[in-house]
Amino acid sequence: MTVLNAKLKSANNICTYVLLLSKCVSTECSTVHTASSSCPATKPSMLNVHLVPHTHDDVGWLKTVDQYYHGDRNNIQHAGVQYILDSVIDQLQKDPARRFIYVETAFFYRWWRQQSQNTRRIVTQLVNEGRLEFINGGWCMSDEATTHYSAVIDQMTLGLRFLNDTFGECGRPRVAWHIDPFGHAREHASIFAQMGYDGFFFGRLDYQDKARRMKTKEMEMLWRASESLTPPLADLFTGVLPNGYNPPEGFCWDQSCNDAPIRDDPDLEDYNVDEIVQRFLNAAFYKTNHIIMTMGSDFQYENANLWYKNMDKLIKYVNALQAKGSKVNVLYSTPSCYLQELNLANLTWPLKTDDFFPYADDAHDFWTGYFTSRPALKLYERLSNSRLQTCNQLEVLGGPKSTSGPFGEGDSDTMKRAMGVAQHHDAVSGTEKQHVAYDYARRLATGWAHCEVLVRNSLAVLSGSESPRVFCENLNISVCPLTESSQKVLYADFSKLIHTIKVHSLLNYNLSFFFNSLSVLYECVQSSGQDFSINNKSVLMYAFKFLKVTFDDTTGLLSSLTNLETNQTIRLTQNFYWYNASSGNNKESRQPSGAYIFRPNSSDPFVINKTAEIQIVTVSSTVQEVTQWFSPWVSQVVRLYEGHRELELEWTVGPVPIADGLGKEVITRLDTDIESSDYFYTDSNGREVLERRKDYRPTWDLKQTEPIAGNYYPINSRAYIKDDKHQLTVVTDRSQGVSSIYNGSLEIMLHRRLLYDDFRGVGEPLSEPGEFFDGLVARGRLLLTLTPPNMAADVHRPLAQGMVLQPLLSFQDGTPLANTKLEVCRGSFSGLQDALPPAVHLLTLSQWDKDSVLIRLEHQYQAKESKTHSQPITVNLQKLFSTLEVLGASEMSLGANQWKEDMNRLQWNTAKASKPLPLSAKDPSPWENRQPTDHCTSQSECSIGVSKPGTDS
Ligand SMILES: *[C@@H]1O[C@H](CO)[C@@H](O)[C@H](O)[C@H]1NC(C)=O
Ligand SMILES: *[C@@H]1O[C@H](CO)[C@@H](O)[C@H](O)[C@H]1NC(C)=O
Ligand SMILES: *[C@@H]1O[C@H](CO)[C@@H](O)[C@H](O)[C@H]1NC(C)=O
Ligand SMILES: *[C@@H]1O[C@H](CO)[C@@H](O)[C@H](O)[C@H]1NC(C)=O
Ligand SMILES: *[C@@H]1O[C@H](CO)[C@@H](O)[C@H](O)[C@H]1NC(C)=O
Ligand SMILES: [Zn+2]
């Protein structure tokens, strides 16, 4: 038997494998298919206009995903996806030249399941001939500002899996297509590149950036999307579409549009074909003699005949003019056919290394409010991701009994689909109508209900106990029925575990925690006998081994933070403020703040209270906490835990009062003496970190028109400020908006409640009702660490990972055990043979099919950010799991829809010489000399090696 090793050659790499268990299924790699042989011919000496018929089908927005699919509630918005697909398939059959692209697999999957064998045969043929092409192909078109990479990879995998299972290689999307998301994250581009996409097109970018790019012909570029991965691994050809995602003006031939049809009778007075040709010739801001025209828009093609009939004529008459010397050639095409032409042109493309945030479509219209909109939904989505990972892992570890066992039938698919839908750019982004937000939350709850059965079954298998188990919906004890009876609270800190947690849980019950590190721990928890001791003395200093915090005893605010290991102290004042949201009544612009847009009517926020009333609550020797009361609707608990390096700020904001007629955007601001000047740092989808600078964009000379909103950026997991000596890092529990307006300061937007719609289509002011009060109460946590900059990643990487993957708690009814030693009823199980190296994170462990599992091993450090951890790492795949016998492994693309050895992306030339960043260390192992596995291998930064047992360390 040979040894299978996975090697993560560089920092920040994700390696995806299918592991074969038990019976060896065939692992023949599928043959490599040649790219789009079905693309229409173009004319090299002419301007080729690629018409791309498409529909943009939001997976929920003004209506729920079900209402959109069925065409229900057309009084809200006329849209019915099932009719769109019916109609398009019908029209495609009428002429082999016609093309259509389809994007959202959440909808296609539903439609496909309702089709007859005959229709399926026809559709399969259309796909095989390239007439119907899948583009993007994830479950949805994800939001880029408020999503976490883990959930994005999962939702892409779900959609791509369906397409591969259904259509094989011909169903594999080659182009990523984010025509509507409101700004673009670099990590998304990196993910797309690693998934094997050849290119990426989008519609929205800052209006100043767009104007410049049109002038300099830089609408198309090469995006180098990672500072860690060696080019071209994370390089993605990226194009900005000329008309957003709409048709050019005057060319909208959907039933929902009012544009005149092609009037093709030259004897008629309004014959307009010549004018159309001229319009195409005017679009001269692209480098090649090819341009792409998106022919379609939101939920269009319900009556596809209108579109195709007019496009047929457009093509016929415009091309007929070629006989009279016209140099315009119009054709039906697809994004991948257009991309192929650009590639053949073999030009040199400009290089892009930053991202496309924030997005503004006018001087006072910054789409930076949605970074924070609907904070509770954003948290729930994040918690659901954690639960889904747990569910996936327990499905593997518990075996077949987990889906069908003592507690009934459970599954992870419902949760996967609910999470897939929740990644949509009007879901977790918070830009949907209120009734649709409820629908997303309900889907996640239903998904969890299915997972919960699976988890019960699996834990019964793993623990050998079938007695009933209760899950707390959250750690707030008031909603956990089994624990309601007791008044005492125990703080337990199981810091020995790989992921340490802090639990507020109750005595006398058998607790078990399932960690995403695959450990289950059973513990009979007993009361420590300590009650809350409340004293109001003004002892305002708190110290454990790692941190010391002081409060100002006149204001009750935080005043300093000390790292006791490094002996560093910073001044740290924290308070809560609100920006007065613009109502649109303003001489510069009528733009109000809304679900998308952040527009304060003054750069100076109002302080909620200059002082806080504080209450000291010393709980135990393991936790110290102070509660600060700022107003009836803002409070905070400040906590320090024994053995932890972070300060926890648990904020509660709401219901935000609006009786004064003022919309409010609530922030907390940390003011320090760190000399950060104009710089601050934000993560991209929870992964790599980007540098930000106030009133500055790396790619153009910014004319700043909104001093606050124009400096906001999204964070998904962390932000920091630093100088030579100090770095203050804030780890968050959900996606939020963040900025640094003053030297040494960092502000995070926590909650917003607004009175006006912001004219971007949602048609409602963002004013979330609460369950118990008038207005939503949001609560969340910020974790603060103070370190020297070169040690920061070692602390914030694991901290952020622990925040993303929360342990799942469950309670079993237990007999009170008066004086029993804890050891007596302690048990544990670990799915891993050994703890993974600190740099490696098991991003995915999920049942793939009957005899195989999908795993993703992630190197979670960026190149150069950690002296100890930013190093190549080798993991033995066979010794990874304690209960799984691994017989073989095959490497796949990140999206798991292509074998790695079949990946063959288009190559592009770029202006700047690609200088790969030096990795922190040379590869220590003599790996290169070994023979690769008989399965798939590649020249990528992941590899699988096979060696004889005993020869491997
Ligand atoms: C593409 O252009 C490069 C120079 O930029 C040249 O070396 C190469 O031969 C060209 N390739 C093709 C296929 O024309
Ligand atoms: C649980 O939530 C309720 C309502 O927000 C609150 O009153 C109560 O104090 C919370 N309990 C704990 C232990 O946090
Ligand atoms: C930290 O600083 C204090 C006073 O400045 C000093 O007494 C102490 O020895 C220092 N500790 C460390 C670990 O450097
Ligand atoms: C501000 O806090 C003080 C206590 O520090 C409290 O008495 C006062 O009512 C608070 N003001 C508001 C507006 O809540
Ligand atoms: C894609 O699906 C086909 C069957 O349609 C299967 O043979 C192939 O292994 C799948 N590819 C991957 C990478 O899973
Ligand atoms: Zn959309």
UniProtKB/TrEMBL annotation:
<keyword id="KW-0325">Glycoprotein</keyword>
<dbReference type="InterPro" id="IPR037094">
    <property type="entry name" value="Glyco_hydro_38_cen_sf"/>
</dbReference>
<dbReference type="InterPro" id="IPR041147">
    <property type="entry name" value="GH38_C"/>
</dbReference>
<dbReference type="InterPro" id="IPR011013">
    <property type="entry name" value="Gal_mutarotase_sf_dom"/>
</dbReference>
<keyword id="KW-0378">Hydrolase</keyword>
<dbReference type="InterPro" id="IPR027291">
    <property type="entry name" value="Glyco_hydro_38_N_sf"/>
</dbReference>
<dbReference type="Pfam" id="PF17677">
    <property type="entry name" value="Glyco_hydro38C2"/>
</dbReference>
<dbReference type="InterPro" id="IPR015341">
    <property type="entry name" value="Glyco_hydro_38_cen"/>
</dbReference>
<comment type="similarity">
    <text>Belongs to the glycosyl hydrolase 38 family.</text>
</comment>
<dbReference type="GO" id="GO:0005764">
    <property type="term" value="C:lysosome"/>
</dbReference>
<dbReference type="GO" id="GO:0006013">
    <property type="term" value="P:mannose metabolic process"/>
</dbReference>
<feature type="region of interest" description="Disordered">
    <location>
        <begin position="911"/>
        <end position="953"/>
    </location>
</feature>
<dbReference type="Pfam" id="PF09261">
    <property type="entry name" value="Alpha-mann_mid"/>
</dbReference>
<dbReference type="InterPro" id="IPR000602">
    <property type="entry name" value="Glyco_hydro_38_N"/>
</dbReference>
<dbReference type="GO" id="GO:0030246">
    <property type="term" value="F:carbohydrate binding"/>
</dbReference>
<keyword id="KW-0862">Zinc</keyword>
<keyword id="KW-1015">Disulfide bond</keyword>
<dbReference type="InterPro" id="IPR050843">
    <property type="entry name" value="Glycosyl_Hydrlase_38"/>
</dbReference>
<feature type="domain" description="Glycoside hydrolase family 38 central">
    <location>
        <begin position="365"/>
        <end position="444"/>
    </location>
</feature>
<dbReference type="Pfam" id="PF07748">
    <property type="entry name" value="Glyco_hydro_38C"/>
</dbReference>
<dbReference type="InterPro" id="IPR011682">
    <property type="entry name" value="Glyco_hydro_38_C"/>
</dbReference>
<dbReference type="Pfam" id="PF01074">
    <property type="entry name" value="Glyco_hydro_38N"/>
</dbReference>
<protein>
    <recommendedName>
        <fullName>Lysosomal alpha-mannosidase</fullName>
        <ecNumber>3.2.1.24</ecNumber>
    </recommendedName>
</protein>
<dbReference type="InterPro" id="IPR028995">
    <property type="entry name" value="Glyco_hydro_57/38_cen_sf"/>
</dbReference>
<dbReference type="GO" id="GO:0004559">
    <property type="term" value="F:alpha-mannosidase activity"/>
</dbReference>
<feature type="compositionally biased region" description="Polar residues">
    <location>
        <begin position="928"/>
        <end position="942"/>
    </location>
</feature>
<dbReference type="InterPro" id="IPR011330">
    <property type="entry name" value="Glyco_hydro/deAcase_b/a-brl"/>
</dbReference>
<dbReference type="GO" id="GO:0046872">
    <property type="term" value="F:metal ion binding"/>
</dbReference>
<keyword id="KW-0479">Metal-binding</keyword>
<keyword id="KW-0326">Glycosidase</keyword>
